[in-house]
Each structure stands twice: as C-alpha cells, then as structure tokens.
Amino acid sequence: MLIAATIAIFVVMILAIIRGVVGPTLYDRILAVNMFGTKTVLFIALLGFVMGRPEFLDIAMVYALINFVSVIGVLHFSDSSVFQRRPQDSDPSAPAEKDC
Amino acid sequence: MDTAISISSAFCLLLGSFLCLTGGIGILRFPDFYTRMHAVGVSDTSAAGMILIGLMLQNPDGIVIVKLVMILLMLLFINPTASHALAQAAMNNGLMPLLDKQVLDRKENDHNGQNEAALDKTKNEGIKPSNP
User: Fold this and answer.
1) Nearest Cα residue in chain A from B52
2) Residue A74 domain-assigned?
3) Cβ–Cβ of A31/B33 closer than 8 Å?
4) Staple A68 to which of A38, A45, B78, B126, CB 3.0 to 4.6 Å?
5) ipTM score of the complex?
6) Domain range holding A26?
7) How far apart are CA A5 and CA A2, in angstroms?
8) Which residues of chain A lie closer than 8 angstroms to B64, CB-CB?
9) Are the Cβ atoms of A25 and B9 closer than 8 angstroms?
10) What pTM did the predictor assign?
11) Using the beta-carbon criterion (under 8 Å), do B67 and A57 form an inter-chain contact?
12) pLDDT tens digits for B9-68?
C-alpha cells in the first residue's frame, strides 16, 4: 500500500508539472509549483517509509518550510507590480502630488 | 489489534491517494484559475492529512509520530495561507474569474431553450428538433 501511494503521488507530481508548463497565467504556474512542493513533502515521507529509513521526515519538514517561503516570496514580488508592468503605469504626475 | 491497525492504515493511504489523484486531475481539467485553486486547495490539505495519518498508523513508536504530527501541523498552517495569498494576489492584479460572461450566456440559453421547448411541446409533441 505504501508503494501504491508513492506511485499515485508521483503521477500527481507529473500532472502538476504539466500544468506548470502549459499554464496560461503566472498564477497557474505558482499554484502548480505550490502543489508540487506539497506533493514532494508527502513523497519524501512515503519514500522514507518504503526504504525503511524514517529519518527522511526531517528532510520533508525542511522542504515544507522552504516551499512556503518560496511561494510567499514569489507572491510578494508579483504584488509589487514588477512582474506585470505596463507602459502607461509610469505616470509623471505622482511627484507633483507628493510636493503639496 | 495489529490487523485492525494495518487495515486502517491501508484505508487511510488509499483514501489519501484517491484525493491526491482527484486534485491532479482537477488541476489539469478545470477551466479557470480559481476553480483550479479550489481543486488543489481542497484536495491537497485532505490528502496530506490522510496520508500522514496512514503513516502514523504504520509505525506506532516514539519520535516518528512526533515528526509526522509536526509535518501535518505545518501543512495545515501553510496550505491555506499560501492559497489565500495566491487568491488575493491574483484578484489584486486583475485576474478576473471566467464566470461573468459564461453565466450570462448560460442564463440566456436556458431562457431561450425553455421557451423553445415549451413552444415545441405545445406545437408538435414527440418530434425531435432537426438541428442539434
């Protein structure tokens, strides 16, 4: 049953990678990467039990934290409108308003 | 007792794998970003919980269960937070849901379809429409 769950999670990781490659928007890709990270945590935990080494759970914990930090970091950059800058966004009237 | 524990562990692992596969199929097949996020967010959390509970039942001793509970708590805090931040970032940056035009079109089609069906019923019963 452990091997069956491992194979299922591996298949789902492949599906998430497909969505991350073909995803039409930026947020689809971020979502696919987030799902891939969660599934990687489960995959490492299951693989530790399959191979008889439960010490792999430490690596799974570290991977969960790294995944969270990376997703929040990328979302912070995408909030700061550096990702999707349009040419009409640079308005010269902003410093004039700041002066008064 | 041992058999019951192993059977419940196998059941939890199978349920987790099934939820995992539904999430994977959902992220490929749903039409919109927000619907994809619904599939991933729901199935990720429940699948992780089920698989980790199954692993806890596999090996009932000591430090392994503590680590598994820590991973479960981390995932239960991290997944909703990341989903919330992702949805808010997408909404703030102007990614609209696909629903508006489709819901309007479907309402209009339903309206026309009901009218046409009523007319067909009153006029000629039992004759199928020629063009699909």
Assistant:
1) A42
2) yes
3) yes
4) B78
5) 0.74
6) 2-82
7) 5
8) 54, 57
9) no
10) 0.74
11) yes
12) 999 999 999 999 999 999 888 888 888 888 888 888 888 899 999 988 887 678 888 888
B19 vs B43: CA distance, rounded Å? 6
Residues B10 and B39 grouped into a single domain:
yes
In this structure, the answer to whether residues B70 and B37 fall within a common structural domain is yes
**Is the CB of B82 inside 8 Å of chain A's CB atoms?**
yes
Q: Which amino acid is present at A22?
A: V
pLDDT digits (tens, 9 = 90+) for A31-85: 998 899 999 999 999 998 888 887 888 898 899 889 888 888 887 777 665 555 5
The answer to whether the Cβ–Cβ distance between B74 and A11 falls below 8 Å is no
DSSP letter for each residue of B18-59: HHHHHHHHHHHH-SSHHHHHHHHHHHHHHHHHHHHHHHHHHS
